[in-house]
């Protein structure tokens, strides 16, 4: 999941980012409204955690611009404005959720995760192909009933490949969905991560390389009985 945190209190912004990264999310940060608006326009984020009272460009303007663009990005307003009128106003602007400060970090994580599930085409909470099972909520992967210990990036790559349901996912798409803005776009990190992921997933191999296009996990072919009856 790719998240942007736009918050002018730098210590709070960095703390939120660190916490979300520990939960396996790819997180970028912006400390003012103009930068946040530009980043949200250039990159497709699943969720934007957005303060309202921002320097440069107000959070309300950023929220309205995201809604008007038709982006699938979900907006969680995180702000010290705590009256009912403030919350109603934020939601009417198009925010998907509203969390007042101070807040419990675990609640923030739960809300971001819930919004992230709504930011992309619906996928089942548990993804399977053959004997491989990936539980998105529990962040657990097993094959043949045996747990597989994956890093956050390996888990993210496998998750994106399974969500594609047999489709090809390019290295650029994986880099955008799993890594943050600090990653060198010319790096070999995707290739290296896929290589180690293949080893951990084991045999028979599941991840295919499509030359010049990217990677995929083919869906198993279902053989129907004669006559087409199931």
From TrEMBL:
Tagged with keyword tRNA-binding: no
InterPro entries: CheY-like_superfamily (IPR011006), OmpR/PhoB-type_DNA-bd (IPR001867), Sig_transdc_resp-reg_receiver (IPR001789), WalR-like (IPR039420), WH-like_DNA-bd_sf (IPR036388)
GO CC terms, sorted: cytosol; protein-DNA complex
Keywords, ordered alphabetically: DNA-binding, Phosphoprotein
Alphabetized CDD domains for the sequence: REC_OmpR_CusR-like, trans_reg_C
Domain of life: Bacteria
Domain OmpR/PhoB-type intervals: 124-219
Family annotation (SUPFAM superfamilies): CheY-like
PROSITE patterns linked to this entry: OMPR_PHOB (PS51755), RESPONSE_REGULATORY (PS50110)
DNA-binding region: 124-219
MF (Gene Ontology): phosphorelay response regulator activity; transcription cis-regulatory region binding
The protein's name in its UniProt record: DNA-binding response regulator
Species of provenance: Actinoplanes nipponensis
């Amino acid at each position: 999941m790719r998240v942007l945190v736009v918050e002018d209190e730098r210590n709070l912004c960095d703390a939120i980012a660190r916490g979300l990264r520990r939960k396996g999310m790819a997180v970028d940060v912006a400390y003012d409204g103009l930068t946040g608006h530009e980043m949200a326009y250039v990159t497709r984020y699943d969720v934007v955690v957005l303060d309202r009272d921002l320097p440069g460009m107000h959070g309300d303007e950023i929220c309205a611009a995201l809604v008007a663009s038709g982006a699938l990005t979900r907006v969680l307003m995180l702000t010290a404005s705590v009256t009912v009128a403030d919350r109603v106003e934020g939601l009417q602007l198009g925010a998907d959720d509203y969390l007042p400060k101070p807040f419990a970090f675990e609640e923030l994580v739960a809300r971001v995760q819930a919004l992230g599930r709504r930011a992309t085409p619906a996928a089942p909470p548990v993804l399977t192909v053959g004997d491989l099972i990936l539980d998105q909520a529990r962040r657990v992967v097993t094959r043949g009933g045996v747990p597989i210990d994956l890093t956050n990036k390996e888990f993210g790559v496998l998750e994106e490949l399974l969500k594609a349901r047999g489709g090809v996912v390019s290295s650029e798409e994986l880099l955008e969905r799993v890594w943050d803005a600090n990653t060198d776009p010319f790096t070999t990190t995707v290739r290296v991560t896929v290589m180690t992921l293949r080893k951990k997933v084991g045999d028979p191999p599941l991840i295919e390389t499509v030359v010049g296009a990217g990677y995929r996990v083919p869906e198993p072919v279902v053989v129907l009985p004669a006559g087409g009856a199931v």
